Amino acid sequence: MRDHKGLNEIARIIRKDIVSMIHESKSGHPGGSLSAVEILTALYFNEMNIDPNNSKMEDRDRFVLSKGHAAPVLYATLAQKGYFAREELMKLRKINSMLQGHPDMKGIPGVDMSTGSLGQGFSAACGMAMASKLDNAPWRVYTILGDGEVQEGIVWEAAMSAAHYKLDNMVAFLDYNGLQIDGAVEKVMNIGPIVDKFKAFGWNVIEIDGHDFDQIFAALDMAKETVGKPTMIIAKTIKGKGVSFMENEAGWHGTAPSDSDLERALEELGGADNE
Q1: N or C: which end of the chain has fewer CB within 10 A?
Q2: pLDDT in tens, 106-134
Q3: % residues pLDDT > 90 (the chain)
């Protein structure tokens, strides 16, 4: 039985840490970090075979944050899981901090791939899944892309490759919040019909509410039952989810909250405590 009450509480803390660390660094990407919280919470606290005390465990499942600018959600999740001290989060983007603006696999425990150039993380995840297949290994690969990210051509090369090699040990989430740095995705460069496109490329495609744990876990269970195809979970999300004045606002793609913004955000998320 999955403890949704516990997962919701973890997600709340992760959201608080996201807005707090970006405020402290005066730089970062809150909108797309907040939209992916439930997905990462589900993966790290229920789904993946991982061990914070042995971050290089050979048979661990791998996770790649292809939309690397959303690093705060990954860092907050890793800290909450116990990969490193939560206090490190307040050093985000500061000189000599291990927590850079984008994930660094060489310096951060629990990060399996350095990402940032959009689309490349997705390609790396495909390579990891292929390596697992070639080695007859048990581990699975999970990745998350942004909807603006799939405007990159490299995404479709990787999608074609993953289907060709029947990488059914790979699960990708599309964080479909509808907004990118320049505004609405459909106006900047329309990616629709996105479901039909991934199906045409040979993927098993599932559509869900990306903030609903029941739907996330149901999709993950379906992915594990799928043979011969990689799975793309199209997760409809809200950019800035959990902070009312950030929700569905493209301006919060890469803007740090001010002192007053932080105070208001933390109040909405349950107060500025240090649980």
Answers
A1: N
A2: 999 999 999 999 999 999 999 999 999 99
A3: 96
Give the C-alpha separation, 179 to 253, whole Å: 8
CB proximity list for 229: less than 8 A, separation 6 or greater? 163, 166, 168, 202, 203, 204
Q: Assess if residue 217 is contained within a domain.
A: yes
Amino acid 4: pLDDT: 73
Number of domains in the chain: 1
- Token readout for 205 is 């495609």
Q: What is the mean pLDDT of the chain?
A: 96
Structure tokens at 237: 């999300």
Residue 275's pLDDT is what? 46
Place of tokens 């809200």: 238
For residue 40, give its domain range.
4-268
Residue 53: Cβ-neighbour burial (10 angstroms; 0-12, 13-18, 19+): exposed
Q: Which pair of structure tokens corresponds to residue 209?
A: 């509410």
Residue 193's alpha-carbon distances to 109, 178, 190, 252, in angstroms, are 37, 13, 9, 26
Indicate the residue type of 113: M
Residue 243 domain-assigned?
yes
Lookup result for tokens 């909108």: 31
Q: What distances in angstroms separate CA 214 from CA 61, 75, 106, 219, 262, one per listed residue?
A: 21, 24, 34, 9, 30
Angle (nearest 5°) at CA 93 between 66 and 272:
95
Looking up residue 77, the CATH number of its domain turns out to be 3.40.50.970
On whether the CB atoms of residues 256 and 22 are closer than 8 A, the answer is: yes
